[in-house]
Specification:
Keywords: Signal. By secondary structure, the protein is mostly beta strands. Helix content is 11%, strand content 41%. Strands 2-3-4-5-6-7-8-9 form an 8-stranded antiparallel barrel. The longest helix is centred in the first third of the chain and has 17 residues.
Length: 161
């Protein structure tokens, strides 16, 4: 179990460090409304990491598509609607879990402009989910802990509605 816990920290950390050289986040034609101005890090650091950040996706629906070969034994995709700065709804749109829905409270950390770590607990399934969502590269990495199972996936993140 120690290895799984280390993975929860290592994966987002590696992504954050590797993304440090990526160009600043710019609004693309499919990104929707202009992004809020960056706020200084709440922890007083000079890293640019901002806890309790507001996602650029608030008020929008995005599709996280993890492809056809996932740890769930086939395809997996979900529509995620960010209803507020702390609430989201999701519906699984592909795969064995198709039709599963939940409304959750989430927290965010801005790693750099356009790159966010998003965390939530799913009351219905009991799963704990951590997403690293890159709105500038349209990539999502998901780490899910459900009971004693640990699942990690990477997929595309596109504006859906």
């Amino acid at each position: 179990m120690k290895l799984a816990r280390a993975s929860l920290v290592a994966v987002p950390l590696v992504l954050a460090l590797g993304a440090g050289t990526t160009a600043a986040f710019g609004v693309s034609s499919d990104a929707g409304a202009p992004q809020p101005a960056a706020r200084p890090a709440h922890d007083g650091s000079r890293t640019g990491v901002e806890t309790d950040a507001v996602l650029p996706s608030v008020g929008q629906t995005w599709l996280a598509d993890f492809g056809d070969d996932t740890p769930f034994g086939g395809p997996f995709a979900a529509e995620i609607t960010f209803t507020s700065a702390t609430q989201l709804n999701f519906v699984v749109t592909k795969g064995a879990l198709k039709g599963a829905t939940d409304s959750v409270t989430y927290t965010t950390t801005r790693i750099r402009p356009g790159l966010y770590m998003v965390r939530w607990h799913e009351p219905k399934s009991g799963a704990n989910v951590t997403h690293v969502e890159d709105f500038s590269q349209h990539v999502v990495v998901s780490s899910i802990v459900a009971g004693d199972q640990f699942v990690q996936m990477e997929g595309s993140l596109t504006r859906h509605k």
